[in-house]
Give the backbone structure.
Amino acid sequence: MKEELTDNKRNSILMPFLVGGIVGAGLTLLLAPKPGKEVREDIKRFAANTKDSVTSVIDKGKTLFDESKTVVSNAIEAGKAAYEQEKEKMRHAA
């Protein structure tokens, strides 16, 4: 479980770098010394590739969120069960 949380934390740290790289690549295309037609074609290609990348990242983020939610829910349920078990032990011991 700790390993899963470490992986999720590592992925959440990488997300801003990925977004920054995408933005940087887009700015590079806009600032490149090329004729307008070539720049427009480059932007179209970049936009298509970026859309796929962003969609993939969003899907991965949703998956990580769902997995994290499941881990937290399981931990809460385990805590409740342990609490009830110890409460019963104390009740029988008294």
In short: The mean pLDDT is 79. The first helix runs from residue 2 to 31.
